[in-house]
Each structure stands twice: as structure tokens, then as C-alpha cells.
Amino acid sequence: MGKKIELIERLQLGLAVSIAKSLTFFVRSLRLGAASVLPGSIARRIEPRILQLLSQQVKNGIILIAGTNGKTTTALLLSTILEHKGYKIAHNASGANLENGLATALIDNANLLGSLNVDYAILEVDENIVPKVLTPLQPRIILCLNLFRDQLDRYGEVDTISKRWTKVISTLPEATVVIPNADDPTLSNLGQQLPQKVLFFGLNEPEHYLEAIPHAVDSIYCPRCGHSLDYQGVYLSHLGDFTCPSCGFTKSKPALESGEWSQILVGLYNKYNTLAAATAAKELGIDEQTIRETINSFQAAFGRAEDLVIDGKRVRILLSKNPVGTNETIRVVTESTDKTTLLVLNDRTPDGTDVSWIWDVDTEKLVERGGTLVVSGDRVYDMALRLRYSQKSAQSNLNLIVEEDLRQAIATALAHTPANETLHILPTYSAMLEVREVLTGRKIL
């Protein structure tokens, strides 16, 4: 009877995978998209346990990467490091990080019978579904990058998410390795409470402290006693060097000395991604030379500090989907000498329908430097209003252009970009996909 049940399960898994792969072939052949979500959705209807059944076949285990910002870049960097050592990787590289996207990534690497032959699966996971997928995936390593307010209409506050993470992670086998961000008080506290092996990553570079704690800050109170934390300095949002004067809670010690690690990607936020990937790679036994060589030749993931050349001009796409991320991309822009920026604000499901977060962004820094700001997207007038309110004087040298049509907005921004400068584009998630489709003629999803 047991063998009969096992045979039925294998046939059901094979059916789910073969139908999903056929659908993938159909969608990609007709250039309808990358088929990164729908095949997994269909397969899960046929075999609801497909995530568990496929993940069990990964030879060296699942590496799960969760957090509000940086998942795609960190996952791609770690995947590239492992591939340079000859490992075969399954990875949801398109950024589809809900359950259907995870299933699709594993299906893509399976044969028509549902057999999976990969060494590692690196899966970036939306922070809200971490508790749902930890049990079926049983990850070998969990990378916890950060927790910020993101889509307020879909997710709770960071403390709520952290408590849910802690509750589920603590039930995993002790062999599980957890790698949290030491500079994030919530995640530093999470790591200090777990029974599993915990390695931290973080910065120790006071020269990069911000002048003051930014407006878009989420967690400056002690996660243990609720008292205000004392910050020696902050690197971005609430990430920094801290202690609690009330209960003694303090920042955990990172496994790597951050000052000894260089990076090729722009932005301090990408230093965190670099350190997270390097810490995980070292834990997996990858030699330091391979890690450093990969980091120094790494190309950014699509839309994440991605550089393109359009009509002979350089274009850099900086995904900007929440207050903290947008403040950091604005920092990249204002530290450059380039004077043309395109902001694209959408309010679709992947972005979050509540765009009130733009009032927590320090757009004043972008406006103060002047130059040309082109605004577009579904909520173009909301963003234009935010920028107008950021002007301290009507006599500023800001050239604000409002253009509803995205194609025309891109053309206008390119026309205002001198040949020797870079056009920075700051889009929300769905806007980033549209921008790339316009610029490259290819869809991502």
C-alpha cells in the first residue's frame, strides 16, 4: 500500500511539473513574458506540496533570503559566487518572491518527471510569507537582511513581522544557520534569541554615519524593553551602532570586518548586501579569493543600480519602493554630479496601493540641488506635489517636468541629459518593469 501511495505522489508531482513547464515554454515562446509566476500557481493547484517535494531534492540545501530591501541583489551575488565554484544553482532570479514564484524557480530546474538536480537553491522570499514557507523549505541558511516599513496596506509593522519570524525560525532544526543584520535592532535581537547557530553581518565604519537620524526611521526603540536606543551613529534609517541605556541590549558583533570588504556596486545599502552574501558564502566553505573576485566583477540585478546605454547615453535604474530605499537612492543621486532624474510612482499591487510613504522621503535633498526632475507614473501628480512642497523657495533652479505618459517622460528625461552625464531613474517596482520594457523592449514577468 505504501509503494502504491508513493507512486501516486510521484505521478502527481510529475504531472504538475510537466504541465507547468509546458506553460512556461508556451509563454516564453510567444514572448508573453518570463513566466515566473503562473507556472508555479498552476503546479501548486495540482500538487499543493510541490515546494516541499522539490526542495527536498536540493543536494546541499536551501538558502532563504528575506528582508524588505536588498533581496534580489544579495541573492544574485551569492548565486554568482557559488556558480564560480562550479555549483549548479536554482534561483528565482526574476524577483518573483511569493509562493508561486518560488515554485516556478524550482520547477524550471526540474525535469518532466519532477526530478531536481541542483546543488543549492537560493530563494529570495517576501518578508510576509517567511512563516508560511519555512516549514516546507527547511532552509539550511536564512539570511535576514533588514526590516523596514514597506507596503502599509499589506504588511504590519516591523515588530509584528519580527515576532512571527522568531516564532517560526526557533522551531527549525538546530543545524539551521541564521544570518541577521547586526545593525538592525529588531534583527539583532532576533538573532540573540535563537537556539540555532547565528552569524551576524553589519558595518563598522563611522565615517559613513548620517548627520542625523532620518525622518523615515522605523525602529529606534529597544526591542526588549521599549526604551529609546542610544545611537553612536546611523548608516541608514534605523540601522547603525546602538545600545540600550535601560536594559543593556546592544548591537551584535558581525562575523566579518566590513572595512576590509570593497564593493563595485553604488550605495551604502549595497555594502550590506555584499557583506550578507560574503558571510553566507564563507559559512558554505567558499574560499575568500573567489568571494572577493566575484564581488569585484559583479553586475547589478535588473533595476537595482542597473546601468544601461540608451541612444548613446548612460541610464541608471535605482529601484525606489519605500521610504528607506528611496532615501538611499536619492543619496546616490545627490552624491553624483548628474543633474537629470526621472521619478516614476505607481500604486499597483506589487508597489502597494498606499503611496503616502512618499511624504516620509527626504525629497528636499533632491530638490535643493536643482537640475531637472521629470515625474511620471500612475500617481504622477502625487509625486509632483511632494516635490513642490519640498521647495523652500520659488526662486530655486529646479526644472520640474510632469509627464503622464511614461514613454514620453523617458524621452524627455533623455533629451535633458547631457552626453557626459547619467540619467538616474527612480521607479517603484511595477514602474521599474515598465521602464525596462520601454528601454530594452523586454518584459520581466
From TrEMBL:
The active site is at D354. Zn(2+) binds at C222, C225, C244, C247. GO terms for molecular function: ATP binding; carbon-nitrogen ligase activity on lipid II; tetrahydrofolylpolyglutamate synthase activity; zinc ion binding. Signal peptide: none annotated. Pathway: Cell wall biogenesis; peptidoglycan biosynthesis. Its EC number is 6.3.5.13. It catalyses: beta-D-GlcNAc-(1->4)-Mur2Ac(oyl-L-Ala-gamma-D-Glu-L-Lys-D-Ala-D-Ala)-di-trans,octa-cis-undecaprenyl diphosphate + L-glutamine + ATP + H2O = beta-D-GlcNAc-(1->4)-Mur2Ac(oyl-L-Ala-D-isoglutaminyl-L-Lys-D-Ala-D-Ala)-di-trans,octa-cis-undecaprenyl diphosphate + L-glutamate + ADP + phosphate + H(+); beta-D-GlcNAc-(1->4)-Mur2Ac(oyl-L-Ala-gamma-D-O-P-Glu-L-Lys-D-Ala-D-Ala)-di-trans,octa-cis-undecaprenyl diphosphate + NH4(+) = beta-D-GlcNAc-(1->4)-Mur2Ac(oyl-L-Ala-D-isoglutaminyl-L-Lys-D-Ala-D-Ala)-di-trans,octa-cis-undecaprenyl diphosphate + phosphate + H(+); beta-D-GlcNAc-(1->4)-Mur2Ac(oyl-L-Ala-gamma-D-Glu-L-Lys-D-Ala-D-Ala)-di-trans,octa-cis-undecaprenyl diphosphate + ATP = beta-D-GlcNAc-(1->4)-Mur2Ac(oyl-L-Ala-gamma-D-O-P-Glu-L-Lys-D-Ala-D-Ala)-di-trans,octa-cis-undecaprenyl diphosphate + ADP. GO terms for biological process: cell wall organization; peptidoglycan biosynthetic process; regulation of cell shape. Residues 319-432 form the Lipid II isoglutaminyl synthase (glutamine-hydrolyzing) subunit MurT C-terminal domain. Residues 65-280 form the Mur ligase central domain. Keywords: ATP-binding, Cell shape, Cell wall biogenesis/degradation, Ligase, Metal-binding, Nucleotide-binding, Peptidoglycan synthesis, Zinc. It is an enzyme of class 6 (ligase). Belongs to the MurCDEF family. MurT subfamily. The lipid II isoglutaminyl synthase complex catalyzes the formation of alpha-D-isoglutamine in the cell wall lipid II stem peptide. The MurT subunit catalyzes the ATP-dependent amidation of D-glutamate residue of lipid II, converting it to an isoglutamine residue. HAMAP family: Lipid_II_synth_MurT. Forms a heterodimer with GatD. This is Lipid II isoglutaminyl synthase (glutamine-hydrolyzing) subunit MurT. It comes from Trichormus variabilis SAG 1403-4b. The gene is murT.
